[in-house]
Amino acid sequence: MFPIRRIKKNEGPVLKQNETDTADGGRLEYLTFPSLEETGIVKHLFTTRLGGVSEGELSTMNLSFTRGDLECRVAENYRRIGRVLGCRPEDMTASHQTHTTNIRRVTAADKGKGITRLRDYENIDGLITDEPGIMLVTYFADCVPLFFVDTVHRAVGLAHSGWRGTAAGMGGCMVKAMQEAYETKPEDLLVAIGPSICADCYEVGEDTAQYFCELPQGGVMEDSKFSGVVRPGKQPGKYQLDLWEANRQKLLAAGVKRERIAVADICTCCNADYLFSHRASGGRRGNMGAFLGLK
């Protein structure tokens, strides 16, 4: 198993490493949340860089068709993930991420879109469904994956939340969308905040920090929309942004119970050999995928 640097030094791991053999004799590694596995109603995983057939800076488990990879390699990577999840690429439905809070309700008619056939939608950063047999897919390389499972009404959601989506409340938007579509109650939701860039690695400028706090006046930083998610950086005019905590606070404000939110303990940037990181690679990288569906 590939050694990884975990962030939470004094706690048990929130994420579990898994591995399986590939047909060419390699090892495919992926991550799962025990809290979601224990529901017994979903299949899910978050990919790593290991176990695919892509090459170079995209090696090896790149899941993006838009990063310069050969289509045949990306397709094979999806087939390998599908074998782990017990589904086909034709059963998967992908987002079209542009840092919005737009959410699409997915049905069987959407199967394969963005994977094996063209999408007929754009600007979608969140997906929800209550139909078994559909595998939702979203993409990451530092931004925050959000997994939602309604164990009462048997519905799921998957979202991409970068700093723009986090500031705009993507977590709360997903809760509201599931309430309207499936009568989901926030207190029934299990939510997992997946691998993404940690606060120590995520340095931002004043233009980004201002969405999360009131910038220092007379040397004092005051919180506004969020509490304690921005701290002074190593240089003047720079700040460290905690997207994990910001998303957690948005979920709590939307009514999700504190004990039902699992926050990942793995940073993409700290583990750039294991996970794709836009910041660590200077943009020369592939995309990882989050997968979630009802059994």
Assembly status = single chain
Question: How would you sum up the major sheet?
Answer: 6 strands, mixed
Mean pLDDT: 94
In what range is the share of β-strand residues? Answer: 25-35%
Q: Could you give the distance between the termini?
A: 27 Å
How many helices does DSSP assign? 7
The helix fraction, in percent, is: 10-25%
Poorly predicted regions are none
For the largest sheet, list the strands in their spatial order.
1-2-3-17-7-4
* SSE ordering: EEHEHEEEEEEHHEEHEEEEHEHE
> Radius of gyration, Cα only, in angstroms?
18 Å
Topology:
Blueprint: E1 16-21, E2 27-32, H1 34-37, E3 42-47, H2 71-85, E4 92-94, E5 103-105, E6 126-129, E7 135-140, E8 144-150, E9 155-161, H3 163-167, H4 170-182, E10 189-193, E11 203-205, H5 206-209, E12 213-217, E13 220-223, E14 230-232, E15 238-241, H6 243-253, E16 261-263, H7 278-281, E17 288-294
Parallel strand pairs: 4-7, 5-6, 10-16
Antiparallel strand pairs: 1-2, 2-3, 3-17, 6-9, 7-17, 8-9, 8-10, 11-15, 12-13, 14-15
